[in-house]
Every structure is written in C-alpha cells, then in structure tokens.
Amino acid sequence: MPRIPPELCTRCKGYRLLCGLPSCPILDRLRSQARSLERARWSREVQGSTPPSILVGERGYPGVRLYYMVPPGVAGPEAQRYEDPLGWRSSRTPLGSIVRLRSELVAGVLRADARRPHELLYQREIGPAALSERPVDSFLELARLPVPRVSFDGYTKPVGPTAPARRVEVEGNPRLEKPVERAIWEDEKAEVMAWELFNRGVNVYTIQRALSIGFLGRLRARRLVPTRWAITAVDEMLSRRLRRLLKTAPEIGGVEVYFSEYLHNRFLIILKPGPGWMEWIEIWHPHTVWTPGAGGPVASVVREDPLGRKNMEDGGFSAAKLPVLEHLYSRGRRADVIIVREVLPQYYAPVGNWHIRETVKHALAQKPLAKNPQPGELDALASKLIGEWGLAKRISQLMKPRKTLESYMD
C-alpha cells in the first residue's frame, strides 16, 4: 500500500477517502483491534432501553441503513450514559470509557428508502423513540449474531456490534419535549424549525436526530438524512442564523482569551474586536489516530469571512463555530475569532465531533484567562497552553486590525 501523507488523513478523517482507497486503512485497523470483544454473551434477541441512539448511514443513498442501538440488559435511566455528550463532558468521562460504552451497544440494522421515512419511522414508533428525552424500552430480534466489531468515524460516535434486524419493537412510551412534538407536524423549512427548536432550548443533538430521521422540513419533502450530513447541516444552519442576527451588533470592547481541554484535545479561543472573521487552526501531533506515520505536527487552516464564506469545508470547524456564535449572541456582540485546536498523541480513537462543540462551549462559559493581553503576553500564553508550533507569528498577524475600504479612502 502506498504511503498516505498525514496531511491528507487530517483533512479526510476517514470519511472522504481522499487517498483513493476503497476504505480507510486507519479505521480498518481500529475495527480489527476491536474485534477481540467478547461474543459469547450476545444472542439474537436483545432487550434493553435505547438511550436513545439511532444512526442513518449514507452508503447506497437513497437506499440507506438505519441503526437502532440498544445496550443489552440495560434499562431505564442507566441506559442514558451510552449516548450522553453533555453528561460525558460535564463528568469528564475519559476516552477509553466512551469507547467501551459505545462498544456495548448492539445495533439492529434496518433497510430504508430515504425518500419515504414515514414507512419505517412513524408506523413503528421508531422515530418518536429516537427523539425521546429519556431512554425507551426496546426489543431487537436479529437475523444472526452481531458482528463483533466497533466502527469509528471522525464525525459520529462509535457504533458497536451490528446485525440485520428481523424485528424492532418499541415497547416503552417515548416522551418528547413539547417543542419537538409540535415541530413534527409543522409544515415549514428545516432551517426555520431547527432555529425554532434551538431558540426554545432543545439541545443540538436532538435537533440533529430530528433532521436525520426526517422529522423536520416541509411535510411532503421530508427525507432521511445520513447522520454525518445532518450533524454538519444543523451546525451550519444555526450558525447562519446567528451570523445574520449579529450582523449589526456592536463589536466587543477588547481582546479575550479562553482555554479548555478534554479527551486529549486542547482548545485556545481568542475573541477580538471585529466584524466576524473566523480562523480555525488545527494542529495534530504525530502518532494521533490520523497521523500514525507523521514525522512532525500536521496543521490545517479554515478561514471564514463575516458573510459565512470559507476556503474549505470542515466538520470540526462547524462544530466549534456554533458555540462561539451562540456565546456572542448571548452577549449581543460581534467579534473576530481565532480557534486553535491541538490534538495530542493520546487521542487514539475518533469518537465524533461532539466533544469539539462541548469543549469550546465549556471554555466560553468560564472567565477569560486574559483580557487585552500585550502581544508578548499573548504569544507566551499561546505557547504555554498549546505548545511551540510556530503559532506566535500567525497569531500576531491575525491580531492586527484588518484594513477596511474606508481606510484606503482617508
């Protein structure tokens, strides 16, 4: 197999197959390592409560696979910890524990036509169960014993052992939040309904699932949306709305520096007066999940202007951008934003981009580490928190005021 440049891997994250190979060799290796999981305790009948946890695949679209996940023998509130990004972040659940929890979920796989979501989701109560605010008792009858492996992805949470489902029964009563229940029957564009739910306090993960399972949008045009697509789509839809609302807001009064770390990922966030430019700098150490053969750090940069136009698409940037704009909206202020993500070698398995969203949100919920630091102080702080990656020069450039049309007319 030809050597794949690590720069390509950090951009692809196993999803786009930019290397030209039919599957990602890094993810294939992780899956093979996970096959040592015990198989003896599994059977073709699975009883438990879905947390809820559901995933829509994309291969073969519009003919897609729908994964309905249940932890065998785990029922009631205890099942929630198997799909709980907010709880994982607040309790600082370690990477190994998250991988273990996800590996214990058994997924019954159903085939569905993305153009006709009602045939599967509405009639069997699978859709309401997927949006329930509490775990829902469920039963799976599988066509064969589950395949003993865990599937990893740079965008979604790991998926445990899978098998085709002969039967999926929702035995409990799903309980939906009132705004979600109303949204199901609204004949309105998905972006409008996503914002309405977000504005009413529904968490972004419920909105992602609602879009993915075809419960948002014009009634006659609803579709199943692959989970990977839905995650980024919701981040971008909400970010666009927040940008529009902030368009005429006053700028923040000075420079603010924030920091947080979780799952061996460090985030440095700098806010400074400006109309809303954003720069995402992602630095991967050698020997992380996407840089196993790199001889040095691998960096990538995404830039977005105040109108939301960017130089490249990146799901990690979309996940980080939303909590920043949410924070600025809560203050009624605009700002230019620099976000630096440093990925340490201990990040050995991808668990989705939820932790980016939650760690950036956690950083901005704290008091700033520094306010209006001098250039030398900012350089020293960045080097201390993120490491010596030659960031000082780039940050110094970004901290300079941007030239406006008016400045050329003076």
Automatic annotation (TrEMBL):
Pfam families per record: Nre_C, Nre_N
Entry annotated with the keyword DNA damage: yes
Keywords: DNA damage, DNA repair
Function text: Involved in DNA damage repair.
Family as reported in the entry's similarity comment: Belongs to the Nre family.
InterPro entries: Nre, Nre_C, Nre_N
Name used for this protein in its record: DNA repair protein
Organism name: Aeropyrum pernix (strain ATCC 700893 / DSM 11879 / JCM 9820 / NBRC 100138 / K1)
Biological process, per Gene Ontology: DNA repair
Superkingdom of this protein's organism: Archaea
Positions of the Archaeal Nre N-terminal domain: 18-291
Archaeal Nre C-terminal domain boundaries: 308-408
